[in-house]
Amino acid sequence: MMAEDKTNQDQEALDDKILTALEDVIDPELGIDIVNLGLIYHVDVDEDGNCEIQMTLTTMGCPLSDMLYDAIVDTVEKKVPEVKDVDVQLVWYPQWTPELMSRYARIALGISQ
């Protein structure tokens, strides 16, 4: 196996570990985690352990944005020791729609396919 392949596999494994940790961050209004709601758009960690997470919210001006931000930072820093620093960037494109939710989230919220 080439070193680059190993690095890509390690990166994917770390990204998956972060996404799994983020499944513990629950949107208090909907009672579903932010990953299954489709709010996490991108996760990237550099070689120094700096993690950038791009996310959106279900609506602009969501009153829970600060609480979710803090929960994301706390969860990733506690559950993923490879991460040294977390930067959460709020993005609005693409705009969130219920189609971004996982099948699990749609079923849990009673939304038909």
Distinctive features:
single chain, alpha+beta, globular, GMP Synthetase, Chain A, domain 3, 3 helices
Layout of helices and strands, plus pairs?
Blueprint: H1 3-22, E1 26-27, E2 32-33, E3 40-45, E4 50-55, H2 65-79, E5 85-90, H3 103-108
Parallel strand pairs: 4-5
Antiparallel strand pairs: 1-2, 3-4
Would you kindly provide a written description of the structure presented here, covering whatever features stand out?
There is one protein chain. This protein has 3 helices and 5 strands. By secondary structure, it is an alpha+beta fold. The chain has one domain (3-108): GMP Synthetase, Chain A, domain 3 (2-Layer Sandwich). Strand 3 and strand 4 form a beta hairpin. The longest helix has 20 residues, at 3-22.
Provide a brief overview of the structure.
With 113 residues, this protein is of the alpha+beta class. The chain has helices at residues 3-22, 65-79, 103-108, and strands spanning 26-27, 32-33, 40-45, 50-55, 85-90. It has three helices and five strands; from the N terminus they run H-E-E-E-E-H-E-H.
CATH homologous superfamily assignment? Fe-S cluster assembly (FSCA)
Beta fraction: 15-25%
Which structural category fits the helices and strands? alpha+beta
**Widest sheet: strand order?**
3-4-5
Q: How many helices does DSSP assign?
A: 3
Please describe the biggest sheet, giving its number of strands, its sense, and whether it closes into a barrel: 3 strands, mixed
Protein name: MIP18 family-like domain-containing protein
Domain MIP18 family-like: 16-88
Pfam family, one: FeS_assembly_P
